[in-house]
Amino acid sequence: MSTSASAKPYSYSPYSVSPRHRRWLLTSYWLLVLVLFVLTFALAENLQRALASILISATALMPAYLWSSGRAKGLPIFPLLGISFLWSFSFPLVLGHSVVDLYSPAEHLSAALKVAFFLVVGTLVWFPLTASDAKPPKEYYELPEEKSNGLFLWVLVLACLYYVTMNARWFHYVPVAIIPFIRTLILGLNIIAVFALSYKLGRGSLPRNIRVLFYFLFAVYLMVTAAGLILIQSVTTFVVAVMGYVVGKRAIPWKLLVAVLVLLSVLHVGKGEMRGRYWQYPGASPFQEADLGAVYPLTYASWYKEWLGYGLSSIFGEKDKEYEPIASDEKEELFSLIDRACVIHLLLKIQSLTPREIPYMMGATYSIIPSLMVPRIINPNRARTHEGTVLLNIHYGLQTRESSIRTTIGWGLLNESYANFGYVGILALAILLGLLSGILTRWSMFTPILSARSMIAVIAISLAIQRELTAGVVVTIALQSLFAIVVFGFLFMRKRTLLESSNG
Fold it and tell me: What's the predicted TM-score (pTM) here?
């Protein structure tokens, strides 16, 4: 780390909503609420499902209102966590879902009450911590502005190269022990780079040449991450970029969101045929075979042409029967898995079976977390990062350990807490996430986006919007990202000491 430098403290948090932007954000907020309200009652199968969806949506959007109105300060960590419950718990009740439809309206309402309970408790814990300005820190570590753009662009380049190598199966030539270290260092910093550059883009502080390079590299990154036929990483990174832009601009890029949503919809409906063609072999997973399903640097154009063709055919014509997902006697067959964005069907399953037929897990998925905190380079026999998810799927009969090697069904923190301890688990999780979100928000409130504190808060945002992760995965990613920030800080950051100010 470099020697310290002095700086004036902020007179207000750079992430809070200023009076100038408050009216616009609140107008957008209430417009969104109105659209959701109308569509919910227009599309819901019955009144009970509509009410259950409205209950989840209302409590999920409460933190966003508190932040948009300026009542909550700092980075919107918990508001974004709440918003993620819209597509994972609320929308499936309205849009229809083959598994959700199997349960009665009373069961839908019961699940909605559990989700609402979690969100209300979490909001009540988080809001008092963010309702007032924190005291600016006396010092913090920060990446110098003059170095930041170049370093972040290089991080994006390295992240693209990582996925190009992964897609081409070239990691077979790299010692297995160092792959987690490479992934931790590069991908942990990539989320920060994307958020920071998007934040600067929103504030209009990126030079034109840097802006063009960012557009290009970010588009390439999304392309190479999605090429493995698993969209969650590219979607998560895109959402992080949008959040960075919104926090910086205090405006929502609606046209871009609609365009990307349309593209993702086409890719989503076409990925079944692509997986049917390239993953259809015993024990297959996206990155196991050296040839089948490999995407090489010069084949991306043909790969996406084929993928988009399957997607458009599925929407406007008939699916390709040759590569249509093969039926299986086992319910856990790869191609019958539910879209990972929806997890309310798992909550419905838990409450219908536990504790009457299947007992609570009593902390089984949490007990493995200490062992997951030991890096694989130290303990090569360490359990898989998704071991908690595997245990949940086995406990509820959704998968066997063998089938979980091919793919996993994501559960999410809320479902995991209820499967372990019932209502007590939901209450404990709500308090914990409310506290962590509030503490991180206050801790980063008066530090710039290039500071180590804000970078850690950005990692929290990226984890908050992913509803399919279980506790073991969250802790592992958080520790790996923290390690990446420490290494990055040691190499490039310098200490900032704030000058005394009457505003502080």
Answer: 0.81
